[in-house]
Amino acid sequence: MLALLHTSPLHVPVFDALRDEDHPGLELRHVVREDLLTRAGQEGPEAVAGDVRAVLDRAVADGARAVLCTCSSIGGVAEAAAADAGVPVLRVDRPMAAAAVAAGPRIVVLATVASTLGPTVALVEEEARRAGRPVAVRTLLVEDAWECFTAGDTREYARLVARAADEVTGADVIVLAQASMTPARGLTSATALVLSSPGPGLAAGARAAGAAEGGEPTWATK
Question: Residue 52: which of 28, 79, 14 has the closest Cα?
């Protein structure tokens, strides 16, 4: 079983749909903690480290073979707790960051929550060092879009993100820093490669859960 730590309930159907399409039968256990993103935004990601560790401990106790954190703002905190968790703990955006570095040196990170920018830039730069590739990373905060998302207007949210991506120039890659931004990929006409995290992140989580089961995926019985 793969546990997913979300900071919005709107992520649940997104990952369920990806599971059904690409990993049919994989058992997912969703944990939604909206308060973690709120506190991370106000006090910094480290402020929620204790709560994240508690979520991981509970997920493992409930049978999780791996945990995937789908929130970019607290993904680094989740990864840091992996040593004490006893199971693989992954951040959903790491595969995306590695793909961005491989695609080109001029990378623009788009986010709709300011607290996501720093962790995502740090992750991209970490993957660049690991790959031995030079990168130049710029950031762009899509003002006011998050209000649409929290109000449930995901269509307008995606439109605003896509519009911001369309206006980016001088980039090889545009990184959509939050899982919630994924639908904008289908709306943007940006000439740069546009990457999002849910698909490759879930694939990495599925592999980790399968490896923990001795090479076989964890299948749901329902």
Answer: 79
